[in-house]
UniProtKB/TrEMBL annotation:
InterPro entries per the UniProt record, alphabetical: Histidine_triad_HIT (IPR001310), HIT-like (IPR011146), HIT-like_sf (IPR036265)
Sample GO molecular function, one term: catalytic activity
Top-level taxon of origin: Bacteria
Segments carrying motif Histidine triad motif: 100-104
Domain HIT: 7-116
Species of provenance: Paenibacillus bovis
Name by which UniProt lists this protein: Histidine triad nucleotide-binding protein
Amino acid sequence: MTQSDCLFCKIVEGSIPSNKVYEDEQLLAFHDISPAAPVHVLIIPKKHIDSMNEVTEEDLSLIADIHRAAIKLAAELGVADSGYRLINNCGPDSGQAVQHIHYHLLAGTKLGALTG
Ligand code: 5GP
Ligand code: ZN
């Protein structure tokens, strides 16, 4: 379930602290340590999955749950109407730095256009 050399698994286990904003049986959400916007939350499954490429049919409900959590968090953080962005980086060209699937919830300012 968890991977001993994985930063986000350590955050799930609590051996590395995080500033949590949401937690349930399957998911954890916490503030990014190096925020790229006034609101920058990471939403992760507690189950270790390397990246989007390793998501299986049976994991798809987790991905739906992450979207559900993002909608709830956006409302709680007061950015549902002003707008937000939910981003997953997958693989080297995306800049994925942590090999435990995660979604960035970014908001609180006018976000720049997405570029290649
Ligand atoms: P990626 O580039 O893999 O999509 O995003 C990884 C994110 O994890 C980055 O935005 C980075 O700031 C964040 N991050 C890296 N290490 C830590 C940490 O120890 N704690 C928290 N809260 N965020 C982290
Ligand atoms: Zn992990």
